[in-house]
Amino acid sequence: MTLTSPSLNGPLDGLKVVEMGQLIAGPFCGQLLGDMGAEVVKLEAPGVGDPMRHWGQGEVPTWWRVIARNKFSVAVDLRSAEGQQTARDLIAQADILIENFRPGTLEKWNLAPADLMAANPRLIVVRVSGYGQTGPYSSRAGFGGIGEAMGGWRAIVGEPDRAPSRMGVSIGDTLAATYGCMGALAALQARERTGRGQVVDSSLYESVLQVMESLIPEYAINGHKRTRTGSVLPKIAPSNVYPCADGEYLIGANQDAVFARLCTAMGRPELASDARYATHLARGDHQTELDGLVSDWTRTLKVQELENLMIEHAVPAGRVYDAEDMMADPHFAAREAIISVPDPVLGEVPMQNVFPRLSDTPGAVRRPAPLEVGQDTAEILSRWLGA
């Protein structure tokens, strides 16, 4: 699919957003709002711009093309009095301000949220930081990996006999950005009732903590500390990545009825009534040996052969995809999960579409990322400020 039609304005059409962040957390929040139709004006340091412009793999990094889509670039020196005044003027016209600097930075630049909201009472200020705007750690520098470690994620990711691992993507940053976006949407709803904006305080470590399931009560009530268990979820079996003759395949058959269907597919229907495997608790107690039985069977099959059997027997399962698999998969194509965005340097750039999908007012990629720092300065100052 090519670039989504600009006529699809999205549910946030008409909202104005000023993004003052850089790298991932603030800009991803801006991407989410822009994807849903908001007009996002990104303030960048003249000449230098956001370091994210240079992040990613390949001779021409492409990450910028995703995280900066649907945005306008305005060059502003926030360390100068003139630049600060320009920022204040733009923010006075905005519905939402996004920033992900260390707490106190806005205040140092004479852009304290209290002052900005005094001039624009309807303003919603999304502040994304490592540790939040308050507390003894608030002034510390914080990146996504640090938030993942403090929030509990890193301690449980990886193999048990190795050091804590990472997710493979900057999950702490994107979680904090997503919660910041969700907070902004909630604040917009509250503004409908009160007429006033507010501050949304989204920290990296708390955003990670929010998705840690029952980690805290398991320890507080039962004294259980979750540890690294690799690809296995303890006591949930069979549910693992299993080796095939030509690759790897994930199977999740831990429910009794599903496990019985898996046993039939394996040609071992008797396993479903075996006392060691007949119930969820029993399978959990015999997880290692059960995983061994399943692995011995999957090794005799190629991935496609195994997938055909899992579909035939209605067992939740799936390939472990990489980017090449995604771009070749018919389901991705049918749902237009990947679109192609025109780029003056690279031609067409495939990237993920806008999610989630709204039936009546879908979001869209309406414009590609700005390739030049400040390329939209004149247009935005004219349209927003009449300058």
From TrEMBL:
Keywords for this protein: Transferase
GO molecular function: CoA-transferase activity
InterPro entries in the record: CoA-transferase_III_domain (IPR050483), CoA-Trfase_fam_III (IPR003673), CoA-Trfase_III_dom3_sf (IPR044855), CoA-Trfase_III_dom_1_sf (IPR023606)
Superkingdom, taxonomy of origin: Bacteria
Protein name: CoA transferase
Species in which this protein is naturally found: Brevundimonas naejangsanensis
